[in-house]
Structure formats: C-alpha cells, structure tokens
Amino acid sequence: xxxxxxxxSGAVSLCALSFNAxxxxxxxxxxxxxxxxxxxxxxxxxxxxxxxxxTACAAVIDNEKTAKADLIKALIAxxxxxxxxxxxxxxxxDDSRVLSLDPALADIWNARGELWLKKGxxxxxxxDFGAALKIDPNHEKAKANHKxxxxxxxxIGAQMAVAGKPSFNCRSAARAVEKAICGNRELADLxxxxxxxxxxxxxxxxxxxxxxxxxxxQDEFIARRNAGYGRAGYDLKKAMQERLxxxxxxxxx
Length: 253
What we know:
Blueprint: H1 2-26, H2 38-46, H3 50-61, H4 68-84, H5 88-101, H6 106-119, H7 122-135, H8 140-162, H9 176-182, H10 185-203, H11 208-228, H12 236-248
Helix pairs in contact: 2-3, 2-4, 3-4, 4-5, 5-6, 6-7, 7-8, 10-11, 10-12
C-alpha cells in the first residue's frame, strides 16, 4: 500500500512538472526575460573605443531578443562612432536601420543627411534635411543644413546654366577670336571667368583711380587677344589662362 502511494505521488509530481514546462513553452507563463547589456555598447562608443564597441554593440544589435529601445540606442551610438572614424557607409547603414525602426527621429534624419553630404550625395542630403524639418520645423541644425544646401544647389544650377558659354552673346560674335571662344567650351568658360574676376576686382578696388586702371588692363588684354589670334605662335588658351591668373593672383583670388 505504501509503495503504491509513493508511485502515485511521484506520478502526480511528474505530471505537475510536465504541465509547468508545457505552460512555459506555450506561453502560459511569462518566459524569463534575457537582459541585454546595452550599457557596455554605449560606454565603449562614448569612449571612442572601436574594438570594445565592435564586440559590445554587436552583442546588442545582433541579438533578436534585444528590446527595440535598446536596439535603437546601440545603433545610434555605433553610427556616431563610425561617423567619427570616417566609416561613412557603415554609419549610414546604422542610421538607416534606426529610421526603419522609428522614422520620427529628426536628429537621425539630420545626422544621416550630413553623412550623405560627406559622401557627396547632395540630393539625398537635402531630402534627409527636409525630412528632419517636417518632423521638427524648429530643428536648428536641419534648418541651417537645408538652407546651405538649397543655396549650393541653386549655385550649381546657375553654373550649369552658363557652362560652356562666354560672357558675351555668341549670336553677335563677329571677330574670329570670338567665334573660336564660342565654339570651344573650355575657352568659353575661361572667358566668362576672366570677365567675372575682372568685374569683382573692379568692384573691390580701393578707389576710382584703381578701378579705372584695372579696366584699362582688361581692355588692353582684349585688344592684344583680338590682334594676336590667328598669328603664328599665338596660344589663345595660354594667353587667357595667364590673364585670369593675373587678375586673381597666385593664390587664385
């Protein structure tokens, strides 16, 4: 009888253990939460320790059980570390993953925009700065970056519009040298640069007498150019390059 009771008792205990295990496996009871050490990642990144951060942050980022908030923190920290070490593509990848998790982070849109700018991708930079401003219209860095980029794109557009065109109207070009300049993009750009640099030099002259002297030099150069073009030994491109350097100085301005 006693043996029978012991067997029955053991069976009940075994059933209880099996039931509890089944509950844990099927979600009947909350499974133990694994704590991921995001602090080590953040500390290593803040200390600019690439080796420690590589290991500590990967442990957080590559862990499927990492909480979303901790994952975002680790990605942001690692992206900033990559950016400081000019690992731009890796930084962009981390920031992009952050934005896929939480697209409402204006700071990260701006940060990624600055990274695109470092890569030379101005259109993408402008898009990200604009996205940051949609979220936070008062974001100071994004406003400054977007404004600067808008001006830069406008300047590039203006340059492209006049690229290969001289300062004068080619339709009214009568001299052979003028027609030669109109027919050559490099010479046309040089002529326009000479014209613009001379205008700037006159505008910045210290007094009217100096401005008059500068314009006289320009008139004399054009006269020599017109008379020399077509003669043996005359190098129009070289003459124009020397004139531009004469106006701008050795330092280019």
